[in-house]
């Protein structure tokens, strides 16, 4: 599911984005090149299940190494 947001302004390396009545900072590097103030953008997030499981396994391995008896 994607959500429509408006680029309010840019501050340094961040875009200030309006979503409903709220604003939040979003890294410009993650936006399409050429995006400008006033543009409507669609933002979508997905869960990367394989990468999530890989990360959990790495964290578990590190935890076991740290807390060995």
Overview of the structural elements:
By secondary structure, the protein is an alpha+beta fold. It contains 1 helix and 4 strands. It has one helix spanning 49-66, and strands at residues 2-11, 14-19, 22-27, 40-44. It has a 4-stranded antiparallel β-sheet with strand order 3-2-1-4, with no helix packed on it. A hairpin with a 2-residue loop joins strand 1 and strand 2. The protein is elongated. The N and C termini lie far apart (46 Å).
Shape: elongated
Strand content: 35-45%
Order of helices and strands: EEEEH
Going by helix content, strand content and strand pairing, the class is alpha+beta
Q: Give the termini separation.
A: 46 Å
Number of strands: 4
Main sheet overview: 4 strands, antiparallel
- Order of the strands making up the biggest sheet: 3-2-1-4
List keywords for this structure.
69 residues; alpha+beta
Topology summary:
Elements: E1 2-11, E2 14-19, E3 22-27, E4 40-44, H1 49-66
Antiparallel strand pairs: 1-2, 1-4, 2-3
In short:
This protein has 69 residues and is of the alpha+beta class. It is 26% helix and 39% strand. Strands 3-2-1-4 form a 4-stranded antiparallel β-sheet, with no helix packed on it.
């Amino acid at each position: 599911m994607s959500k429509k947001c408006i680029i309010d302004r840019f501050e340094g390396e961040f875009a200030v984005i309006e979503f409903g009545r709220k604003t939040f900072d979003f890294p410009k590097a993650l936006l399409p090149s050429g995006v400008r103030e006033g543009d409507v953008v669609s933002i979508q997030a997905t869960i990367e299940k394989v990468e999530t499981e890989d990360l959990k396994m790495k964290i578990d391995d590190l935890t076991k190494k740290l807390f060995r008896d």
